[in-house]
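Input record (one chain):
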Amino acid sequence: MELLVCNKIMSLDLPVRDVYRKVFLTESNEGEPMRVVYRMRGLLGDATEEFIERLDDKHQRPANDEETYRLASVMGECGGLGVMLERLSCVRDIEGEGRPLLGALVKLLSFCTKVQTNRALLVTPELNAVQRLLVALKLCLQAQQNMPPPFTEQLLEVMEAILCQASGQSVEDYARFSSTFGTKEDLDFLLQLSAQMAGSKTTTNILTRLTRVIPFLTFVNDVKMDVMIEHFRQSLEFSQYDTEHSSEQVNI
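The corresponding structure, as predicted from the sequence alone:
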């Protein structure tokens, strides 16, 4: 007996669930019934179809966050995003009882930001999402500067996803959105901390995420841009560069 799915001969040892996910769904839409053809082996001559003995990566569809995390869209539909952000604002003691709650909220928000509809809601000024996440981020970074909580990197990933989504808006909309989060003191804190973390190997991933988030906090805000420029001014010796290089080298 031979079993064919999508005109491929399946090994009888393969789990039906895996055949459905890794073979049938590569050529069909989810929700459609999987058609299985039963055939007597050798009855019509030698088989010419591909024989699938095991299911490896080449039979899997590329990862698609919108599909993988589609159920997370319900959080935006039912107002769950606002509830999570409100609970996030209540966390004050990251070293004690607030730590498990913060970790769970960050993980759930990470799932939610994989979906476009949720990201679109999170950039609305009314939710005040970035400001609330920024407060939580400062708690994480202040708690243990040499060993931040394990979900700190995930928290920065959530912030980056929201800020990237917002950057696709018009300048006016982004300016209105950016007015809801962070002060120049917050920015200065992150810049100073990033400088301290630069020499630490244990916080390399967090520093990488942090340097991606910081620029978004300065967009369309002259005051915050000035803070960033002042922070890096000591490294921007343009006059010295001009005197040490010829005009041809400068143009290059």
